[in-house]
# Entry
Amino acid sequence: MGNHFDSIDQVARELAEAHYITDRALATVLFLAHRLEKPVFLEGEPGVGKTEVALVMARLFETSLIRLQCYEGLDATTALYEWNYPKQLLHIRIEEQQKRGKEEIERAIYSQEFLIKRPLLEAIMSTDEKAPVLLIDEIDRSDEEFEAFLLEVLSDFQITIPEIGTLRAGRRPIVVVTSNRTRDVHDALKRRCLYHWIDYPSFEKEYRIIVTRIPDIEEDFARQVTAFMQKIRAVDFLKKPGVSETLDWAQALMTMHHSYLEEEVVDATIGCILKYQEDIKKFKEEIWSHGEERSQYLSSTG
Amino acid sequence: MVRSVPNTSLQPGDTLPPGITGQVVEFAGFLKTRGYKVFQSSILDSLRSLGNIPLFNRTDFFHALRVNFASSDIEWAQFADLFAEFFRVEKEESQENEQALPSARIDKQEKGPLEETIHEVQTSVCIDTGNGEKRQLEGIAYSPVSRIEKKDLFHLDPKDVKVAQLALKKMMAAFHLALSRRLKKSRKQGNMDFRMVMRKSLKGGGLPYELFFRERKKRLKRLVILADVSGSMDRYARFVMPFLLGLRGVGPRAEVFVFSTSLSRVTALIQHLSIEKALERISEEVPDWSGGTRIGHSLHQFNQAHGSQLLSGRTVVVVMSDGWDLGGKELLRREMAAISRQAHCVIWLNPLAGDPDYRPVCQGMRIAFPYIDHFLPADSLESLNRVGKVLSKVMVH
# Structure
């Protein structure tokens, strides 16, 4: 049972100190996940800060972050380990010259020196004082086979490498699994985790995020940007912008030395926010071309 | 404060102590009747969670239960209402539990983020204290999942829809797993199996004399979906389409077409979108959703433009339509024959076929019938389940 945190309050406090703006619900999940030693399953639209949770956890626990980025076709080998074949081949050739016996060579090439550790194995074999944070990012992009494999790993944190033996984690890593919900992840995996849905932030939350992440920004400007983003998310676009888009946009505007939202500025930079051509078209035709709508969007009230 | 949570060595058969434990278990049962997936481990873990938080804090109590019992976005969005409904009723019945239970209503604050999520979350349960309350709750009748499964999709009322959505999700997940379990391994050559190569090369001093290949994974047949989205089909489309769209990820590059008076290819339009967005996009982009259907004409367009490319011994064609056709007989016959000849298998989903007395009386259906390999009803969740089973059999190479 993890005992780094004493209470939900403490988690909330430490998250705030680490500049991660969130609500008590997330602090509760993290607290319980830590206490119960269960992985956290974070779901939500792209860009709401799921990956950031793992980053912040690593900072809070003062430990390393090991990241496994999932994609279609990801298999056990790429996630777990692979032998360094070229190195092995070379070694064999060299040792053969020295007339070493077959068994000796075999023992040598199947040792840890020739083992390429991929993220999952790294997490298991971590010899750090503190258990690492293992981030399994975008699990919905992998396939069901990989999910089943992951399930096995997550249950005991134990791997058997035929040539070496069984390796067990000294300390259970802290696991964060994220998903963009492009498909349903199988029950068995979700059951193992504590679930949390991260939604788009409220006005206050988004404002605080901007001000925390971009310290130089003027308050009024931040408010304007927040109001704009909040309004845009109410529109039914194909791909709603997330918080990362907000921050990108704010940063871009500051870099261009703007400190106020104006019609031309928005026109020029809308590509920071909307990434589908249809969405931009819809925005320009249905919203931006109407004077009243425009001024609403440019105001700084939430 | 009352912290009566026992440790986790609960054995089946132990009498549950009164208080929170019993309520949590009952709550789990309650969620189950509303279509939630409730796991044994969730109940135990929620009790363990409660053992770690200050129970007098209503918010934390709510959160602790939610992280354990909600396991999808829909369940998450509905949780607040169900929590309010359950614990309010409980409060009426047993006064002594009042201490341990959250007594105030869920603040507007709390509801805020949830409201922004899925807009379908229904707030039909009025959260007001008062005498009229109990009566109000009794007035709302939710059908348990089992009854919804057999209900005709056309007749689902809005309250049932949510439960049906959850049930549909569950169904699709099971279908996916069944499919991947049944995949055969083929012996075709694929990637190199370096491990074997290395092992065997030790014999020859490190030179890879013998090459080994890693087994190429199974092949699934490709799915081509032709969905009738004309007026009469609309209600069914709402459920069958999500089911079919959920199959997009299964097997190589499924293709999706919709038709009413003519055919439109929507595969690219909906490629990376979630199911809800995909349906929206389809209804926006595709003209004439209302009005009649010209099945023959649409199939003709399909065969002309895509037949040679998509139809092969490795394709499974799924047509969803009630068969009411305004077009010519010969045209329909000819096109169905062409499809049937070239594709591996033709599956026809008909929402009207659920009626045991159904006979394909409408001309369109009669003409198409001989060319259909599997004729299946698609009018209830139960029938969709059967469709899934047939598909999983048919799609394995």
